[in-house]
Amino acid sequence: DLIYELQALKKAEMLSDSTINIIVKLIRRIIGFSIKKGIIPYSPFKNIKLFKVNNSRLRYLSQKEIEELYKAIEDDITLTLFVKIALTTGARANSILSIQKKDINLENRTITLKDFKRNNSYLGYINNDLYDLIKNHTEDFSPNSHLVSSNGTALNYQKIYIKLSAFFSSFNKGLAKEDTANRVLIHTLRHTFASHLAISGVSIQKIQKLMNHKDIKQTLKYAKLNQDSGRDYIEELYKGKKWE
User: Which site in 54, 85, 140, 216 is 20 to 30 Å from 74, CA atoms measured?
Assistant: First the structure.
């Protein structure tokens, strides 16, 4: 009953369901640790139900919005590097923040990306624009220097989140905070990468590899954006027809 009361109170405070779930999970971990140490004999919250959260992402940036974002952050090399790597490789935020100079192969134009979710590494590819930016920025870096850093110190997620949120606000006008499906967030950059690949006609199998998805079911949500989805057939369906 106490946990359900806590959930209700946090709901009244306008916290999102996902945030409330994080609080409940933290309490579970504390209780689990207490049981392990013999402080308490059992968990009274073992069967507590979490809120169902819709984590689907519908929103991606258009080409015009990407240009607007680049223009807005052009004076901040750290943000420019972060955003361009995200939109060029589709890497998650923590993967980008962990990139060191030794992970970059300018000759092959690749970046070794660490996937902390899957606990493996995979290759991201560098285009001409990103190549010039990285080459100039890392010229005096040591092999262990982090690419996205401030005065040599690697930035953490919170700092990047705070800095980027100010620029994302123009894309989120009128949207509720809990509307994560349509709000532009840091993860939107990864979603934008995959969405534009699909729009360009890249196969779902290739998108799966570039996104480092374990299961192709994760990638299939982009299929509807692919040129082969049937859109062109609809355009031609009744062309030239005369209706009585």
Answer: 140
> Does the CA dihedral 72-76-77-82 come out positive or negative?
negative
User: In whole angstroms, what is the distance from residue 25 CA to residue 29 CA?
Assistant: 6
Q: Do the Cβ atoms of 221 and 198 come closer than 8 Å? A: no
Q: Compute the distance between CA of residue 124 and CA of residue 50 in angstroms, rounded to an integer.
A: 36
Q: List the one residue out of 191, 183, 187 whose CA is nearest residue 161.
A: 187
Its pTM stands at 0.74
* pLDDT tens-digit map of 94-122: 999 999 999 999 999 999 999 998 999 99
Helix (H/G/I), strand (E/B), else coil: 43: coil
Beta strands in 129-212 (DSSP E): 149-150, 153-154
Cα separation, 173 vs 202, in Å, equals 32
Question: What pLDDT sits at residue 231?
Answer: 61
User: For the chain, what's the residue count?
Assistant: 244
Residues β-bridged to residue 123 = 112
Going by their DSSP bridges, the two strands 120-125 and 149-150 should be labelled as unpaired
Mean pLDDT, the chain, whole residue set: 86
The strand pair at 153-154 and 110-115 is best described as unpaired
